[in-house]
Structures are given as C-alpha cells and as structure tokens.
Amino acid sequence: MRQPEELLQERLERLEAGKPLEACLAGLPEDEADLLKLAAGLCEVHYPTPDSAVVTAQRAALLRQATKEEKAMRAQSSLQMEQRPARSRPGWLLPLTAISGAIACLLICVLVTVMGVGVAWWSLQSPDEARLARGPVSEPTSESTSAVPNPQSAVLTDVRGLVEVQARAGTWAAASTGQSVVAGQRVRTGALSSVRLAFYDGSQVQAGPNTEASVDELDAHLSGRTRTVVLTQWSGETDHTVTSAGNANSRYEVRTPTATGAAKGTAFHVSVLSSLLTRFSVDEGSLAVTNLDATVVVKAGQATTVHTDEAPDEPAFRITGEGEVTQSGATWIIAGQTFLADDSTIIIGNPQVGDWVSVEARLLADGTYLADRIMLLHRTPANRFTITGRVDAIGETAWTVAGQAIAVNDETSIEDGIEDGDLVSVEGVILESGTLLAGHIRLVEEEPGLPFDFVGVVQDMAGEAWTISGITVTVNAGTEIDEGLVNGDVVQVRGWILDDGSWLARSIERVEEEEREFAFTGSVESIAPWVVAGIPFETDEWTQVEAGIRVGEQVRVKGRILEDGTWVADEIVRLDDDDEGWHFVFVGTVDSQNPWVVSGVSLVVDDETVVEGNVSVGDLVRVEITILPDGTWRVTRITPVGETGLGCLYFSAVVVGVRDGQIELLNWPPIPLDDDVQVVGEVTVDSIVLILVCVDEDGTVTIVSIIVIYPPGPAGLTPTPPTSPLPTPTPPTSPLPTPTPPTSPLPTPTMTPVRPTPPPPTEEPPPPPTEEPPPSGEEEKVTVCHKPNSKNPHTITISRSALQAHLDHGDTIGPCR
Amino acid sequence: MLDSSDVDLVRRAQAGDVNAIGELYDRHQAHVFRYVWWRVHDHRSAEDLTGEIFARMVASLPDYRPTGVPFRAWLYRIAHNLVVDYYRKESGHALVSLDQVAGLSEEEDNPAAIAEHHLTVEQVQRALAGLDPSQREVVVLRFVVGLPLREVALTLGKTVVAVKSSQHRGLMALRAALKQEQT
Question: Nearest CB to A65: which of B58, B117, B120?
Fold first, then answer.
C-alpha cells in the first residue's frame, strides 16, 4: 500500500510539471487532496520582495566584486605566474632547502641592475589603463599601504599563515601584520604562508611560502634622497615592486646565494631554485645582471638564471603557464607546447603524462624552449588507480596486492606496520608501460561484518540483547549508547552483521522520530516475502529493486520504518562480488570498445557491466573493477569523465608590426585583433607583449589576450648603473636570442618576418647615471610617425635597423603633424 | 533568446564572464530573498543577508563543481548556513512582530487578494510559526521558494525520504494551524 507522503509527493510532482490542480486531485483521498490544495495555495501567495533600489545596488556591487575577483584570478593564474600567489601558484609550496651558512660565501659577483625607465611610461597612462596594463605586478592591498614609521623600518603587512621574525639574538617569534622589522632581522614564512614588507619609500616585497630573507641594510628615504634597501634572500620566492628613487646613488639590492640584484624602480621576481641556482624575471623595466664580470640585461618579459660560479645565462623571452603533460622525458609537451629539459631543469612532484603542471621556460637562441622548472600541480584522474585488497607480498621495488603487482619507489608513501595479509588501499599511477606505480599504500580498517544502520523504536533493553523495532541487536562494552534511553525511544542503531548472523551494535543514538530509516546489507533469504539477513520487510510500488536479484546474493537494503513498525524498503541493490572488498578503479582513455581496452588495459565487459552515457573511443572514462577471488577482473561500471583543455601558456614576444587590424609578432603569424582578443595597453612596434594562448582538448588554439608589458623607446634600453662595490659589468657575449615560433599545435608560422630580428637589447654595460642618454655605441634612433591604423598615428622613436620595416607598413620619418 | 541554464551560467561565470554573475543574481535573488525573509522575519535584514549570500556565492564559485550538487541546492546551502550564522550572532534578537510583517506587500491590504481560497502572507506566517523548525524549513523551501524535493534534501543535508516525510507532516500541521486560525 502506498504511503500518504508518497502519494502526495507524486501528485505534487504532477502539479509542478504543469498539470491542472483538478487533474492532480483526482482520486486522492480527502486528506491528501487538502494538503495538495494547501501546497498549491502556498505557491500562489504574494510574497514580499526586496526594494528595487536595493536590488539594483546589490547587483551593481556584486558585479564589481565579480570583476575584482576575476581580475585577481586572472592575475593570479596568469600574469602573476612569475609572482607565485599562494592560491594559483603552488610554487609557493616548494619546500626549498634552507641555505647553510657556508653557502652564504657564494654570495658574490652578480649584479642585477633594474631600470625604472618603464615607470615613466606607465605614469603617462591613465591610472586605470596603467593599472590594467600593469597586470603582472601584484598590487598592494589596503593593508599593505599602512604607514611605515621611518626609513629605517619596514612594516609587515598581509601576513598569511605562519610568518616569523628573527631578532638579532637569533630567536624566532611569530609575526603579525603591522609589525616593524629593521636591519639585522630575518623574516621567514612557512608552508601556505606569505607576507609583504612595505618600505618607507613605497617599495614593497612579497615573500611566498617557505621563503627566508634577511634585511641587511635599510634606509629607505623618499625620492630625492639616497635610498638604501639591501636584502638577502636565502630561499623561496619574492616579488619586488620598487619605486623610482630619482637618485643615482640609491640602492635596492637583493642578494641570493648566487646573485645580488640592485633596482631603481621596477617590478621583478627572484626565485632561489636551489642553493646553486637563482632565476630572475622582470615584469617592468629592465635589469642588468652581472656575475663573474659578465653582464646581461634582462628586459620586461625576459628571464635569466644564474648558477654559482658561472656567468648569468643570456636573457631570453620567457614562457610560463599551466597545462597537461602529454609527453615527458628529455622532451616534454605541456599544453601542446614542446619544452626541452636538461640537467638544470628542476622537476617537482614526479609529474606523469596526463598530469597538470606549471612550467617556467626560456626561449633559446635556436628557437627551442628550455624548461627551468616543471612542477606538478595536480594529478590527472586519468591513468590513476586505486586498489583495495590484501597484501600478498612485500618487496623492495614491488608489492603484490590482491594478486596484482604494484611497483613502489622512493616516492611511494607507505604506512608503517603493514604486513602480509593486511587489508590495504593503494593509490597510484599507471605508467606508460602499464606498470602500476604506487603513490600511497595505507592500511584499511577491517570491520567485523557487513554494516547495518537503521532507526527504530526501543522495545526491550534487557541485558546484552536489545530489541529495537523487532530486531535483536547485541550490545557489548564497545557499544556507544546514549544516556537515558528508555523503551519507546526512537534510536539510530549502527553496527555490523556478524558471521553468525547476529547484529552487533556499534552505537545506539536517540534521534528525532521523523528519521525512521534503515540501511543494512546481508544475504537474501527470501524474495516473496522479502527477508534479508533475517529481517523481513515490505516493498511497495516505489521500491527500486535491482533486476535479477536472487536468493543467496548479497544486497544492500535502504528504507524506512513506519509507525506501525513495518519496514518498507525504498531501494534494494545487489552488492558487488567483493567479499574481501577488493576493488580496482582507474580513469583512462578508451582505446577500443569491442573488445574493450582502456588506457591499454583489456577489460572483460559483460551484460552486468553498467556503461553510463554514450561512451566512444577516445573518451576519458572511469572504470570500476571488482577483483574476484580467482584473480580475474569483473568490470562493474564504466562512467564518462569530464575533460578539460590542454592548458594555457604565456609567451613574450616583440611586436614588429601593427596594421590592417592585426598584430605582427616576430616569427609569428599575424594575430587578428577582433573582439575575442583582449588587448591591454597600446600595442606599437617594438613593444614587448605577453600573449596568452590556450589550447583546447581538440587542439583548438585560442589567443585570449595580448598585454603590453614593455613599451618601445630608447629609455627601455638603458640600464641603471651598477652600485658600488659590485664589479664592473661587461657586455653580454651574444645578442638577444631571436624568438622563434611556437611549435604545434600553436599556429604554424607562415609569415615572413617584417624585420629580421627584434630590437637588440642593451649591448653595452650599464653606464652611470640612471636615465641618462644611451652609452656610445648603442644603435642610432630615428623618430617616425607611426601609423598602426589610419585613425591613430603617433610619434615614436625606433632603432635605425627597424626603420625600413616601419616605412614598409606606412610610417613616415619625423614626428607626426 | 535562449534561456541559459544555471549550469551554463555557472560555467560562464567561472570562465570569467561577469555578466553571467548578473544573470545568476537576476534569476535567483527574489527567491533567495523570500527564503531569507521567511527565516529572519525582517525585511532589512533579509535584504542584507541576500546581498551577503550572493557575495559569498561569487567568492565560492571558483570552487563549485557544476557536476556535483545542483547549483540551486548549493546556493541555498549557502543561504541556510548564513541564516544559521545570523541567528548565532544575533542570538537574543527580538523577533519581529507580525504587525511589522503587515504592509510588506500591497496585496496584504488588498481585500480582493484575500479571497476565499487565497492565502495571505500573514496567515501563512502565523501558521508556519507553530510548526516544528525542520518541518517549517522544508515547507518554505518546497512551496515558498519552489525547490524540488531532491534539492531541498541536498540543501538541508537530509535524505529525500526524510524530507518527504517532513513535507507531509509540515503540510498537515500547517493545515491544522490555518483551520485553527479560521475558527
């Protein structure tokens, strides 16, 4: 017989489906008909509404919030890839080794001189435009703008997680926002932690997780007076936003185990990748990096690395981003782009094909991308497996679990105390060879029997055998029982059905009466009437019974207990044939369906296998397998899994032409400037731009945005002078590498470069003083009226070597009139 | 114009389409306000809380997976939690009298709206006040807000069976309360 609440719900659903009330009422008992009318009446009530002005204001505020968060997310996930925000940059999580005192001796010889020339350009823009275009630079929060009391102090702001300050005496103490530090003190951050140091002159440095830095010298006077800020970064990653000092003698230096940097108005990033390697990248301005008497100039959009006892690597345009690994080894393919890896490439987390990683790389002179760092962000669900079963054998390099060989290596996390015969859960990755490599092996708590869970009325509490809604349950010293229970109370009982058929209660808790539900598993003793695990129960027309259940099979029964004590099942489903709970689950790509092969694993799919949705070859699917006692696999379910794109990467490139509604980049095919491409900043010839390119799973390449990160002009090529007592910089040994086109599946270059090479970087050592005319020998400049389109001609200054290219696309010599 | 589904809007919002946030707000704000209003009994507080719920929605949206709990149930879970927080913070707050409730809607004062079979907000408000809290919440979510049974269950963290039972009992109690009021 159907219950009234079921009947009511069924009619409500008809009503909600749009059927007339009268039709829904037909045949209903009077009580239920009244309730249905009442429900319909409730839907018709004229309820209060918020004030329209409030709604308008609320909506506007919401959009502002969304816009702000979107920008923040974009900045985090993309432009600030060089800055390691905690949320999107797991790089903050790197547990870099603390640097020993001896390594401090290696702090020599490298000078990074950072030009503030970009600042003037930025300042010429409107504030909003400048702020947008400055995307890569993290903006200080309101918290970080708090006043710094004097030039000899820095104030900690935006303290997140564990941040500690070391006093001169060497003791560490937890730091808080607003706390001051002075020269001689160290600051360090823990995992998932970060902090910002604000200086008196407005300069700021943000330290990511697991970063340690000391303040060596601090006298951060405002513009016009000599500013001195000297830091040593021992580990981790820092972002620096340095205000323009306006004084040639000012110093803003960052020392690392392999480098020392000096800045005068710029934004740059320092990564201490190891005790022997530091990476500098620049978001604004330019840097002259010197080590072992060799100097390189790093411009916005470029990066260089400095090894101990070696000259800095030639600066190169950088590429950063995240994406899926489709090939690993000496050559990696990430987000569809090819990267070379060599001995200096730092690979973190042992990423495998299919995993999602972040990559930092440089464009080499031969057009290849050399990965500096590849870091696992998250494992792909594909080619992952979990298996639950008993340990058959334990070996140094391989275990046997549930009859399956499982490889282990140094990175496998194995819970202590596991022995042969224990029930364990293994998670890992399926290697290309088909080998199952364990990532974690954990003990699984074994239960004494099949679980049950029901809510019923306490009828008898005598001794160790209680009667609850007609069921005899055993209680013992381990049973957790609510205090004060009396006969008639409604309780929830959880426990196990033991091998002898008895029901052992793990807990008995008082519940509200309305929650009279049950769930248990057991063997089917009878079907008409139903009896499972000794429990008789009823079914009604709403009971969902899995087809084909037979007496003797293990089933799970869920339902409710009526007020008269009748147990009514809502659902009866067959349990897997998994007496030992041996399961194997993995996600892979369908190679074939007849016969079934998923990620190289042959599967026996029979009539009892549930295949959800429309699965085709090439789809990503989750495969659930039960391992039978004889070692054979029975595929129980195949479920499609959603997929994501291959990833997104940022490329830095030089603009060689802007015309006919498209941007021409050196060795790139023209990029049409349609509404789908977000352009931030004024794109002109010689600009350095950051291009966000995303690759979908089907190989579709989308250029999402083009952001000007470095303007053209002679100022951008003028480095600041080195600061005493650092060695005299020397010219780089070779010109800036020529960017080459990205490899497939990015657009294949078909164009002939408008210019043979990008504008050359500084080829002379940085001469004092800052912002003075370029040193002699630097390429001659020519002023032209640049006409990127017919409506917006403007005067620019270019290198003479670029003149012909400009004339070719319609520019004229001399200023615009 | 095709009406985008919540899933489409959520995906667009997660991809950075701010307009999709606006559409989600337009689509759900009235019902969210209605739900909150029934819970806090104060117009101003309900407006404020509604704004807070959507702000929380925007902040949490990057972590929401459209393939999991339906968006509406997820949104009302946020609302439910914020209302609970509201009561926790405002413990000891004075309940608004039913006199204050009157006048919130023009129909309240309109005799034509109080037809024979038409319920008024005041009537429903008074009748619901006598219900068990869990039943009241189910009735509000089901019939005032209009969520399907499954989404109510997901919102409240209960089983469908339990919600079905609460729904039936809640309607019975409501009917009894309304009858009593008429007498």
Answer: B58
- Point out the domain boundary residue: B28, B57, B91: B91
Q: Closest residue of A to B15, CA-based?
A: A70
Do A360 and A280 lie in one domain? The reply is no
Contacts of B117 in chain A (CB under 8 A): 37, 41
CATH of the domain at B13: 1.10.1740.10
Q: pLDDT by residue (tens digit) across A363-421?
A: 888 888 899 888 887 766 666 777 878 898 999 999 998 888 899 988 788 888 899 88
Which of B22, B143, B149 shows the shortest C-beta gap to A42? Answer: B143
What is the pLDDT, as a whole number, of residue A711?
66
| Final residue in a domain of this structure, among A545, A574, A603 | A574
Length of chain B: 183
Domain boundary among the residues B31, B57, B91 is at B91
Q: Structural domain tally of chain A?
A: 4
Q: Give A169's contacts (C-beta < 8 A, 6+ positions apart).
A: none
The whole domain housing A92 covers: 77-315
A163 near A206, Cβ under 8 Å? no
Contact call for B104 and A48, based on CB within 8 A: yes
Region A747-768: what's the mean pLDDT? 31
For residue B129, which of B91, B89, B97, B93 has the smallest C-alpha distance? B97
Considering the domain architecture, whether residues A250 and A262 belong to the same structural domain is answered as: yes
Q: Tokens standing for A600?
A: 């190289």
pLDDT one-digit tens code per residue, A633-656: 778 888 776 544 567 777 777 788
- Could you read off the pLDDT of A680-699 as tens digits, one per residue? 777 888 777 878 777 765 66
Nearest to A645 by CA among A701, A588, A586, A703: A701
Percent of chain A with pLDDT over 90: 5
Give the closest-approach CA distance of B123 to chain A in angstroms: 10
Residues of chain A with pLDDT > 70: what percent?
Answer: 69
Contact A53/B at CB under 8 A: no
User: Does the beta carbon of A562 lie under 8 angstroms from any beta carbon of chain B?
Assistant: no
Query: Do A233 and A117 belong to one domain?
Result: yes
Residues A234 and A123 in one domain: yes
Which of B87, B50, B183 is closest to B127 using CA atoms? B183
**CB of A697 less than 8 A from some CB of B:** no
- Kindly state whether residue A742 falls inside one of the protein's structural domains: no
Q: Is A488 on the interface with B (CB under 8 A)?
A: no
Question: Whole-angstrom Cα distance, residue A283 to residue A278?
Answer: 17
DSSP H or E run through B59: helix B43-60
CA torsion B101→B106→B109→B112, rounded to 10°? -140
Six-digit token string for A2: 């159907």
| A394 within domain boundaries | no
pLDDT of res. B163: 87
Burial A311-321 (b: 16+ CB within 10 A, else e): bbbbbbbbbbb
Q: Which domain holds residue B177?
A: 113-183
Whether residues A50 and B29 touch (CB distance < 8 A) is answered with yes
Say if the ipTM goes beyond 0.90: no
Global pTM value:
0.40
Q: For residue A514, which residues of chain B lie inside 8 Å, CB to CB? A: 134, 162, 165-166, 169
**How many Cβ contacts (< 8 angstroms) between chains A and B?**
131
| B117 and B60 assigned to the same domain | no
Judge: B146–A43 Cβ closer than 8 Å, yes or no: yes
Nearest-Cα distance to chain A for B16, in Å, is 6
Asked if residue B86 and residue B2 are part of one domain, the reply reads yes
* C-beta atoms of A66 and B18 within 8 A: yes
Determine the pLDDT at residue A798. 61
CATH number at residue A541: 2.40.50.320
Residues 6+ apart with CB under 8 A from A237: A84, A91, A92, A94, A207, A208, A211, A269, A270, A271, A272
Please tell me the total count of domains within chain B: 2
